[in-house]
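Appendix B. Chain record.
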Amino acid sequence: MKKAYVLILTLSFFNYSSYALTDEFSLFIKTCKSCEWITYPTPFRLKEQCEIARQGIFLKGMTKCLRTYN
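Structure tokens predicted for this chain:
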């Protein structure tokens, strides 16, 4: 009984950890103050990747990286 309980806890932990890692970061671009935010079509797995892509965009306006949840 104790082995089954430990097995269930272990499986639920792995299921939760894989769910917790599904967060992605999206790059948002705003070309003017009155314009809407435009989302870059490809999400990034890591925030560092999003920030690198953000530095490579040379537009007048604002950019930001935000976490998106599935």
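Further analysis of this model is presented in Appendix C.
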